Amino acid sequence: MAIDTALIRRSWSLVEPRQSKVAADFYALLFSRYPQVRGMFPAAMDLQRDRLLHALTRVVLSLGEIEGLSAYLGQLGRDHRKYGVVPEHYPMLGACLITAMRVNAGGNWLPAYDQAWAAAYDLVARVMAEAAERDSHTAPPYWTATVVGHELRSHDLAVIVLRPSHPYLFQAGQYTTVQTPQWPRVWRPYSIANPPREDNLISLHVRVVPGGWVSTALAHRTAVGDTVYLGPPRGSMVLSRSTASHLVFIAGGTGLAPLKAIIEETAWMHERPSVDLFHGVRLRSQAYDLPDLLRLREQHGRMRFVLAVSDDPAHPPRESVADTIARHRLPADSEIFICGSPGMVQACTARLLRLGIPGHNVHMEAVDEGGLALPWAAPSVGR
User: Fold this and answer.
1) pLDDT of 276-291, one tens digit each?
2) Which long-range contacts (CB under 8 A, 24 or more apart) does 103-106 make?
3) For the chain, what percent of residues have pLDDT higher than 90?
4) Cβ-based neighbours of 315, under 8 Å, separated by 6 or more
5) From CA 361, how far away is CA 357, in angstroms rounded?
6) Tell me, what's the pLDDT at 33?
7) What strand order describes the sheet that includes 362-366?
8) Residue-wise over 122-147: b if at least 16 C-beta within 10 A, else e?
9) Nearest residue to 379 (alpha-carbon basis) of 141, 230, 188, 176
């Protein structure tokens, strides 16, 4: 059955103002009809409802771009293996989702909307299930990893080194999801701060979020020798397609981690590109990785490093990283990678466009959104 995107969008507009209620009703239906799946979810469901809404919105708005949506859904299907999701679960979820939307449409729901959503959901489920099946032949659903390094660089930031029990194949710039023994079934994404290494070690930069479950556990309740669990690598902000001779990396806070990994990867290239790294922090003391970055600059040989400090009177000039990049000459053909908070990413992107950098040369990732997903996934970075 063909997907009628016009019907999908029209029906979504009926329930979008009540999307929180849709999510609550969806989970109530799912757990009452299929109580056996309740154990796959965390005990606290408030954040889980937000993830469903975020994922739904993205899928609805992307149905007209099936190629990009398929890549996104395939990644989700592979990632959902760590939750124990199997093909039999997808029809349960689809039926409850359509029912939840129907009962919240204020009597304006049409039978044609049921049919349109069923067709769309069948496609979503098929792409995810097929990706999971292919992945099951080459990788485990999740990895057990031992903590082999733990350095608390400030009261709210730790650098943690992990050794996965099996080869962990990823690309520089990607992120992993982490579950700690203290919080079963709660996964949070963290960017990997190094490129692939022969010793299979990965480094994470963990910023503690106030009230954050996993970030607090990793920073303050985890020690060398402890065990954590890793989901499959995710993310598409990688260097593999770049042929540019000049690369610019713009980081905010711990958004530094994936960019540092990509820069280290360029240092090994036979014809290494020249690199500019701009790291934005509020206070000079928050430049938590400065010694490593200076070593990386010496190792690379073609790297310029600029620290932007926005709110520290003792470190003039006080300016945002967006203001800092405007003061430095960037070649118009630079390929640019940005990672930081959503506000920082938006500000830097807007500034770059005003400076004449083509939009297709700018790659970005907001560190507090993490990977979007359907109900069994979509963790928020740092909680």
Assistant:
1) 999 999 999 999 999 9
2) 103/25, 104/15, 104/18, 104/21, 104/22, 104/25, 105/11, 105/14, 105/15, 106/14
3) 63
4) 283, 284, 309
5) 7
6) 95
7) 303-309, 274-281, 246-252, 335-340, 362-366
8) ebbbebbbebbeebeeebebbbebeb
9) 188
By 3-state DSSP, what share of the chain in percent is helix, strand and coil, each rounded to 5? 45, 20, 35
Q: With bands split at pLDDT 50, 70 and 90, how would you rate the model's confidence at 29?
A: very high
Domain 246-366 in CATH 3.40.47.10? The answer is no
Largest CA distance in the chain: 66
| Mean pLDDT on 228-234 | 95
CB environment 6-28: b (16+ within 10 A), e (fewer): ebbeebbebbbebbeebbbbbbe
The predicted pLDDT at position 381 comes to: 35
Written as one letter, the residue type at 321 is V
What local confidence, expressed as pLDDT, does residue 48 receive?
Answer: 65
Q: Does the bond joining 233 to the residue before it have cis omega, within 30 degrees of 0? A: no
Q: What is the pLDDT of residue 49?
A: 66
Which DSSP helix (H) or strand (E) runs through 77?
Answer: helix 66-79
Q: Sketch the domain layout of the chain as residue ranges.
A: 5-136, 143-230, 246-366
Q: What does the block give as tokens for 78?
A: 């592979």
Topology at the third CATH level for domain 5-136: Globin-like (1.10.490)
Q: What is the pTM of this model?
A: 0.84
Per-residue pLDDT tens digits for 118-154: 998 898 899 999 999 999 999 999 999 999 999 999 9
pLDDT value at residue 243: 72
> What Å distances lie between residue 146 and 126, 165, 194, 216, CA to CA?
35, 8, 17, 18
Q: Cβ(274)–Cβ(242) under 8 Å?
A: no
Task: Give me the amino acid identity at 75.
Answer: Q
What CATH architecture applies to the domain 143-230?
A: Beta Barrel (2.40)
Q: How far apart are CA 92 and CA 88, in angstroms?
A: 8
